[in-house]
Amino acid sequence: VADRLASMHFCVSRVAERQLASEGIRGSVHWVGDVMLDALLYTRPIARSKSKILEKLRIEPKKYSLVTIHRPANTDEPERLRQILAAFNQVSETIILPAHPRMQKALEKLDLAPKKHVQIIDPVGYFDMLTLEENARLIATDSGGVQREAYYMEIPCLTLRDETEWVETIETGWNILAGANRELILDSWFGFSPPPEHPPIYGTGVAAQNIAGILGHAFAQGLSQEKLGSIQNHAIVGGKSK
Fold first, then answer.
1. What pLDDT is attached to residue 219?
2. Active-site pick, 9, 30, 70, 234
3. What pTM did the predictor assign?
């Protein structure tokens, strides 16, 4: 519905552009990139200077993996959550898991006890999250945003879902759909090696500028047409043109 009602469509990727084309939407479509990348590039230097999360958790860069789980498909499905945690318990590596409230409730309800190397912590702020992502050896998540942030920071990602809307990250080889499959999670944990290529599938960090430029151009054109129409109407009504 939103696609049909919108007069302009700003796409984060070429895949989104093709999906709109398959729906017959073409002329109003612009590939601009992802504003989330804009935000990341702007705030990453701030996070680097302000965040003390590594020191607080006593962890070293690239010597831990980061996990986030929040989707009901995982937290509200006991067997899926058991399989995922069973895989984590078998990994011989420090895992940092900022636990979403839904995840915390699920763990309490199921009485699931992760092993000592799985450090469950309270949710963290944006600067701390960026720092944890940037310094992780691997990221495992069911979050769409974290999948993209992992890609931007060139961190291998395991998606704990059976599908993803960010298929470009799979196609480039930087993301693996692991679902809740314990064997696949374990096989991929240390066996996943992304390719050397890392194309800018979501732009280069200037999406907001691109959008503003397109809107500005369209607005200027609209004003010109409105002004021209006003002059023409005046000429018709008043009998002469000024």
1. 86
2. 70
3. 0.88
